[in-house]
Amino acid sequence: MRFDKFIPTAQLSPYIKYFVVAENAQESQYKVFPASGLVIGFQYRGQLSTVINNVKLNLETSGITGISDHYKLFKNSANIGTLLVYFTEIGFTHFTASPAHELFNQSISLDDIFDKNKVREAEEKLSSATTDAQRIQIIEQFFLSHLKDIQNDRLIVEAVKLIYQSKGAIKIKELNEKLFISQSPFEKRFRKLVGTSPKKFASIVRFNTVLNDLNGPKSLTDICYGNNFFDQAHFIKDFKQYTGDTPEQFKRFL
Prior knowledge:
The structure is a single chain. The chain has helices at residues 116-128, 132-144, 154-165, 172-179, 183-194, 198-214, 220-226, 232-243, 247-252, and strands at residues 2-6, 16-24, 28-32, 39-45, 48-52, 55-58, 62-65, 72-76, 80-87, 107-109. It is an alpha+beta fold. Strands 1-2-9-4-7-10 form a six-stranded antiparallel sheet, covered by helices on one side. Strands 3-8-5-6 form a four-stranded antiparallel sheet, with no helix packed on it. A hairpin with a 2-residue loop joins β5 and β6 (55-58). α1 runs antiparallel to α2 (132-144) and α3 packs parallel to α6 (198-214). The chain is globular and about 55 Å long. The model has no long low-confidence stretch (mean pLDDT 95).
């Protein structure tokens, strides 16, 4: 299996964190944990399915997955090839007028968002490409053709920055006070651009901080209180929602 990252061209880098070309010769089933940005996937070879309540549902050749508050289970066919696009926290809204929050907990076909003919054209070019460089160039051209000339919402950019600085531990009331904005209009703007509420986004950021900590030498108790959980019961409950396992079970398999 390979999972190779590629940095986008300078024109796209404010909106796309990176591309990934992933290939797997073996059929496999795996979990995907909540991330802080939306992800688009193009299958240029093989078939990807989602598994819900032990039922396998085949996904479209190209699809988009919104921010989620729980893990998702996927299954790939043998000899699969996928190009993944990982957006920055507000990057998605620079390519489409669709509000990001409408994709919360959703995995839908890409042509529900973008022009169907352009999606099919990109898929056809990808299927005949023979190198990663060719694949990246095809997808960069696809997004450059959809890039909109709009200004960043500086307040939401600052909110995202503050949430990361606190490792997801900042209180929303404190965020409102720092940004000099009341809760209701702030939440509306944040959800539209980022894809979920500030509180849920902060929780996902904190979860990913915990994931990083689990790879280190810290004890579970240190990780719990170091990430501002009220107690170990809350820590375990939140972690299990996002992974399906307790922190202790999860760390055992690292």
